[in-house]
Design brief:
The complex is a heterodimer of chains A (about 400) and B (about 150). Chain A has about 400 residues and is of the alpha/beta class. Chain A is built from 4 helices and 25 strands. In chain A, the strands form 5 sheets. Chain A has an 8-stranded mixed sheet with strand order 6-23-21-19-17-14-11-8, with helices on one face. In chain A, strands 1, 2, 3, 4, 24 and 25 form a 6-stranded antiparallel sheet that branches. In chain A, strand 1 and strand 2 form a beta hairpin. The termini of chain A are far apart. The model of chain B has no long low-confidence stretch (mean pLDDT about 85). The chains are: A alpha/beta (about 400), B alpha+beta (about 150).
Chain lengths: ~400, ~150
């Protein structure tokens, strides 16, 4: 063997040995780096998750403070908040893909957060812990103490409440005030008037027949049709502006809600027949004194799909009942001057007087699903078991 | 002789390169390990705080200096510990030499990264972990009274 060949072999041996050693070292470094990267990604995942959970907290605060949150474009409650290496967005949605159609709809918050290379999505469903205001439990909770409360004395007897003349006069109130066992309950907040008025379609003054004050005759406000000149309201809510005077409505056919504002008084004369619209809203909201003069029941012959038979739903649409069904609210005194057959509640901030035979039967349906303004504790509650981390 | 010198040169060159690589890898690894430790420390405390309400209506006064007495997110404002400890107050052995601190600021949900706002309703909790005065871990979370009411 020549020395030249031996010399070449040494070079090859040195290079190969070095290359193998370098490769092993590089592999070890790469393995360590990969392990570190996995640790980092795991840490980033946990930070992204924490950020997404923070997003739910932030969104709930936004929802509490912004009454119009349901109208935000695309349900974006938090739109791309950046911090450190993270980014966060929160959207709201509901089952009918229309957040704004019903303020009491349950909703889902979806928080998406990214941190470094990790991305996490958290979803949680929320519903309203709604309870009816106590006044709605009673058919005729009217007697006020002038401080936003009403006296429960008038409805201690079992339902239905029936009065054959007399009723409560102002003279009786002093007696009531001296009763040691009187219980007082909260009334709805008068701001409900604005709530309904702002959602109502105006009834033109041109439909008034004139006379002393505004006088509306044969006004039709039903789900099947409205009087000529009135634009149908999708939620069946209509408003009359009384111009500061007296308003009188005769032969009203009402399936929905009639709001009367800026009036001294509202007189509602025969036939006194009304039913709530499909949403189960109050039938009458009067920002004034209310006088009901009825002379025999009549019937509104309307039907619509009864989708309210689910638990918690409202079911006012009894087609066999000819009288008034629903809730009446007056920010003033209420006087019932002639026969009245009613299933529901009359709630007023002033005094109540009943002059003739009246039957008001309590209806459990709107206690189960009270309309806006007649609820308390509209607080948002997390639906148990709905909190989940979504893996894309 | 020439061959031996050349071979030794090659091996020497490779050795220097390898040592340089090892040195830089070791430095990078130390930084990465610090970063991981820092992140782990802030995440552990963040997860502990996240389980608490934003603000308790009841203030608990106790002589116990540990954070077991901190029962809401807000009460962690100004909290500092070195070395970091677990919930029971036992020092974390792998974090000796570290300092972990918390800053809580009441802000609004409209501007969660903004300045202190009284009655803002949202608490921004910023946790940092430092070693040798270097910030190696940092994390922010938010808690709100509205969230507490709805979730807890």
């Amino acid at each position: 063997m020549s020395r030249r060949r031996t010399r070449g072999g040494v070079y090859v041996l040195v290079v190969v040995t070095s290359a193998v050693t370098m490769s092993i070292g590089a592999l070890a470094v790469m393995a360590a780096a990969s392990n570190r990267e996995m640790q980092e990604i795991e840490l980033e995942r946990r930070q992204a998750l924490s950020l997404a959970e923070s997003g739910i907290h932030l969104a709930l605060d936004v929802i509490e403070r912004d009454d119009a949150w349901r109208t935000r474009a695309g349900g974006r409650i938090i739109d791309s908040l950046s911090m450190e290496r993270g980014e966060l967005g929160v959207r709201a949605s509901d089952s009918d893909d229309d957040l704004a159609d019903d303020g009491s709809d349950a909703f889902t918050l979806t928080a998406t957060a990214s941190f470094g290379r990790a991305r996490q999505r958290v979803e949680a469903e929320f519903a309203y812990d709604v309870r009816p205001i106590e006044a709605i439990y009673y058919p005729f909770p009217i007697v006020s103490d002038g401080a936003g409360r009403i006296c429960a004395y008038t409805y201690l007897s079992p339902f239905p409440v029936c009065a054959g003349g007399g009723g409560f006069l102002e003279a009786d109130i002093a007696t009531l005030y001296s009763e040691p066992n009187i219980s007082w309950i909260d009334q709805p907040d008068p701001s409900l008037i604005e709530y309904y008025a702002s959602r109502a379609t105006p009834i033109p003054l041109s439909l008034s027949d004139g006379g002393l004050g505004e006088f509306y005759n044969n006004l039709e406000l039903t789900t099947s049709g409205v009087s000529t000149g009135v634009t149908p309201n999708p939620r069946h809510i209509y408003v009359i502006d009384g111009g500061g005077g007296d308003v009188e409505v005769v032969r009203l056919a009402l399936t929905g809600t009639l709001v009367v504002v800026n009036a001294r008084s509202l007189t509602w004369r025969r036939p006194v027949v009304a039913r709530p619209g499909p949403e189960g809203l109050p039938i009458m909201i009067a920002d004034c004194d209310l006088v009901i003069r009825s002379a025999g029941p009549d019937r509104i012959d309307e039907t619509w799909p009864d989708d309210d038979d689910t638990p918690g739903g409202t079911d006012f649409d009894d087609p066999t009942f000819d009288g008034v069904q629903g809730v009446i609210y007056a920010n003033g005194d209420v006087r019932i001057r002639q026969d009245l057959e009613m299933r529901g509640s009359i709630i007023a901030t002033g005094f109540g007087q009943i002059d003739d035979n009246v039957t008001i039967r309590h209806e459990a349906a709107y206690v189960e699903s009270p309309p806006p303004g007649f609820r308390v504790g509209d607080s948002v509650r997390h639906v148990e078991g709905s909190w989940r981390v979504v893996v894309d | 002789m020439v061959e031996a010198v050349l071979a030794a040169g090659i091996v020497g060159g490779l050795l220097v390169a390898a040592l340089t690589l090892v040195g830089s890898v070791a430095a990078e690894r130390r930084i990465a390990a610090e970063r991981n430790t820092g992140q782990m420390l802030v995440i552990a405390l963040a997860e502990e705080i996240a389980a608490l309400p934003a603000e308790n209506s009841v203030t608990i006064t106790t002589s116990d200096p540990g954070r077991a007495t901190l029962t809401d997110a807000r009460s962690f404002d100004g909290y500092t510990e070195s070395p970091p400890t677990d919930r029971a107050g036992v020092p974390i052995q792998s974090a000796l030499g570290w300092t972990r601190s918390v800053e809580v600021t009441e802000v609004t949900s409209a501007d969660p990264e903004g300045v202190e706002t009284a009655d803002g309703g949202v608490f921004r909790v910023r946790i940092t972990a430092q070693i040798n005065s270097r910030v190696a871990g940092e994390m922010t979370l938010f808690r709100s009274a509205a969230g507490d009411e709805a979730i807890q």
